[in-house]
Amino acid sequence: MYVSVRLAEEKCNGCRMCVFTCPDPNVFNFYKDKKKISVNASRCKGCGLCVVACPKEALSVSAG
Amino acid sequence: MSTRIITPVAEFADLLPQDYRELVANGPFFARRGLKDLGTFKEIIEEHPHCAGCGVALGVRLVAASLPAPADTIIIGTPGCSFFGLAQTAVNYSNTAFGNQNAVASGLKRMLSLRYPDRHKDVVVLVGDGGIADIGLDMTLHSWFRREKIVTIMVDNEVYGNTGGQESGMTKEGQVLNMAPGGKKFPKIPVFEIAKVSGCAYAAKVTVASPRMIEKAVNRAVLVARQVGPTYLQIYTPCPTNLKFSPDQTVRVAAEAEKGYYAVEEFITDEAARCLQQLTTES
Ligand SMILES: Cc1ncc(C[n+]2csc(CCOP(=O)(O)OP(=O)(O)O)c2C)c(N)n1
Ligand code: SF4
Ligand code: SF4
Ligand code: SF4
Ligand SMILES: [Mg+2]
User: Fold this and answer.
1) In this predicted structure, what is the pLDDT of residue B6?
2) Would residue B109 count as lying in a domain?
3) HSE (CB half, 13 Å, CA atoms) of B234?
4) b/e map B174-191, b = 16+ CB within 10 Å
């Protein structure tokens, strides 16, 4: 079981609060053109800080 | 550092790990990257071993992304959780014996000024509260008294995090910790106030709940240290593991503190203010 962040892409508005809140480097990628982020779940430690920071409820931490 | 050092020779480039090539092609060295570019460039190759939700790791990450000239910066560390900055930033890093950071930084800064008289080389101490306020306090203060042109940044988690939870001089009065079961008996050491009267030309107190403030303060601290004198930055970087709150609450804990005892504060001498003013006019 590997607990990590999941993104519901359709809810994301590209505000980047998550990017500035994650203590781990290179978990989030931000695409300026699309105004979206993507996650590299293998680098995530599942702390949930980004989940708390996201104003759109686009992020969650779970195993699976 | 010369960017030539990290650029692979064309003949060998394809033998190097993909991660390394990405760092060269899209790291923080060649193009100017700031905090606002986080998420669009490669910060580091390695992953770091900090606990989930670590405020120190977040503080180190935000500081590294805010440096005005990462390729010409050396970070000076000392034992503590901040030491993992070594594995967390792509910036040159040198470790020191616990507490010796400002003495080592002073020597390096003087040596770099002689070796590169025409180029700014930024020497940035980035260490824990125990490293500065306890074992390294004498060397920190003396570097300020001597007006060494270095930046000192404390990532203050109010505990010896790395060694399992002893009290530091920066722990809050009354705080109970794994190895301070009776609670701390005296208040936080006022390092920020001491910095103001000990020769620092610029000082700021911020928290990880305000990344843009961190960026502003890091930039000011580095620019003032280049031209005027020592600078000090104190960042509240809460530790969920030792202070025993849930790791998803680190930024909220910092934001709460910011409303009270850890309110944002800035100190600047007239000379440093003139220096910053001049730099703004020039750019
Ligand atoms: C001379 C010496 N004494 C003690 C230690 C053990 N030691 C390593 S880290 C540390 C405490 C670090 O606390 P702090 O500076 O607050 O950093 P944190 O781990 O909290 O980030 C201690 C006592 C050491 N490495 N060297
Ligand atoms: S859960 Fe924590 S480590 Fe994972 S992406 Fe979110 S903030 Fe980063
Ligand atoms: S905080 Fe939420 S809405 Fe903002 S970029 Fe991240 S996932 Fe998207
Ligand atoms: S002990 Fe605290 S400061 Fe150290 S890595 Fe863990 S959360 Fe961070
Ligand atoms: Mg500490």
Assistant:
1) 77
2) yes
3) 30
4) ebebeebeeebeeebbeb
B220: pLDDT confidence band, cut at 50, 70 and 90? very high
Q: What percent of chain B has pLDDT over 90?
A: 79
- Residue to mutate, B54, B82, B177, ligand 4, most ligand atoms under 8 Å from C-beta: B54
The tokens for B146 are: 């001597």
- In three-state secondary structure terms, B266 is strand
- Measured in residues, chain A has a length of 64
The full set of domains in chain A, from first to last, is: 3-63 (3.30.70.20)
- Residue B58 in any domain: the answer is yes
Contact criterion met (CB below 8 Å) for B192 and B203: yes
In a domain, B17, yes or no: no
* Model ipTM value: 0.96
Say how many C-beta atoms besides its own lie within 10 A of residue B197's C-beta: 9
Residue B87 lies in domain: 46-282
Q: Which residue has the CA at smallest separation from atom 24 of ligand 1?
A: B98
Residue B108 domain-assigned? Answer: yes
Which chain B residues are Cβ-neighbours of A55 within 8 angstroms?
A: none
Tally of domains in chain B: 1
State which amino acid sits at residue B233: L
d(CA A28, CA A12): 13
| Per-residue model confidence (pLDDT) at position B47 | 74
The domain that contains B215 carries what CATH number? 3.40.50.970
Whether B216 and chain A come into contact, CB under 8 Å, resolves to no
Q: Do β-strands A3-7 and A28-31 pair in parallel, antiparallel, or remain unpaired?
A: unpaired
pLDDT, residue B80, reads: 96
Instruction: Write down the pLDDT at residue A1.
Output: 55
Chain B hits for A29, Cβ within 8 Å: 39-40
Cβ contacts of B8 within 8 Å, gap of 6 or more: B16, B20, B21, B24
